[in-house]
Amino acid sequence: GDSVTQMEGPVTLSEEAFLTINCTYTATGYPSLFWYVQYPGEGLQLLLKATKADDKGSNKGFEATYRKETTSFHLEKGSVQVSDSAVYFCALSDLAGANSKLTFGKGITLSVRP
Amino acid sequence: DAGVIQSPRHEVTEMGQEVTLRCKPISGHNSLFWYRQTMMRGLELLIYFNNNVPIDDSGMPEDRFSAKMPNASFSTLKIQPSEPRDSAVYFCASSLDRGVVGTDTQYFGPGTRLTVL
């Protein structure tokens, strides 16, 4: 079945540091890939997405490129801010299934120090 | 738009009691999802509806859990009887399924934090 694997956390960085959060996936069809972010005390919200191979999703300085050859969708940001402290979830939606169900990774907590 | 609305935001109950969680999806959305989030198991999909019809309830843990969507603007998740291991944050999410599966963003509510004593 479909699955999403995220790197183990938590991750602690200093402000303005470079961020990479790894995500790899297994899917039977041609998935769309997503990054969701959950700020403390809130629900998840979409950060960015990519729907086909080589697409790059970007938002708020974050980027991720859909790499079919390595089945990866790593999240990057060049300079993190304290306000980026949150839990980040990688997810996929498999077009082989006739539904909009998302499969989420376990999430990783990012803490950014001033 | 008010976004996905969930109530209550916090619920504390005793073991054995019935708990009902409520969700109002974004107007016009035709898919609705119930998730459970715990430290141990992460984010789990419990059930989802499309056009008010349950499509996949394979994530519902056991018969104590039930969900309904009587109309396009309201859904409930009921636990009866509740147990301490049901303590978690329960999220509702909705999306507009335009027939191009896999590309529809899910919008999450703020969640209901359930504590069963």
Give a verbal description of the structure.
The complex is a heterodimer of chains A (114) and B (117). With 114 residues, chain A is mainly β. Helix content of chain A is 0%, strand content 49%. Chain B has no helices and eleven strands. In chain B, a hairpin with a 2-residue loop joins strand 7 (65-71) and strand 8. The mean pLDDT of chain B is 91. The interface between A and B is medium-sized, with 26 and 25 residues.
Topology:
The complex is a heterodimer of chains A (114) and B (117).
Chain A lengths: L2 E4 L4 E4 L4 E3 L1 E4 L5 E7 L5 E7 L5 E4 L2 E4 L9 E3 L8 E8 L9 E2 L3 E6 L1
Parallel strand pairs in A: 2-12
Antiparallel strand pairs in A: 1-4, 3-9, 5-6, 5-10, 7-8, 8-9, 10-11, 10-12
Chain B lengths: L4 E3 L2 E4 L5 E6 L6 E8 L3 E9 L2 E4 L8 E7 L2 E6 L8 E8 L11 E2 L3 E5 L1
Parallel strand pairs in B: 2-11
Antiparallel strand pairs in B: 1-3, 3-8, 4-5, 4-9, 5-6, 7-8, 9-10, 9-11
Principal-axes geometry of chain A comes out as globular
The profile of the biggest β sheet of chain A is: 6 strands, mixed
Largest interface, and how many residues on either side?
A-B, 26 and 25 residues
One letter per element, helices H and strands E, the order of chain A comes to EEEEEEEEEEEE
* Helix/sheet category of chain B: mainly beta
Uncertain spans of chain A, ≥5 residues at pLDDT below 50?
A: none
Tell me the distance between the termini of chain B.
Answer: 36 Å
Shape of chain B: globular
Structural class of chain A: mainly beta
Rounded radius of gyration of chain B (Å): 14 Å
Strands of chain B, count: 11
Comma- or semicolon-separated keywords:
heterodimer; A: 114 residues; mainly beta; 12 strands; globular; B: mainly beta; seven-stranded mixed sheet; four-stranded antiparallel sheet
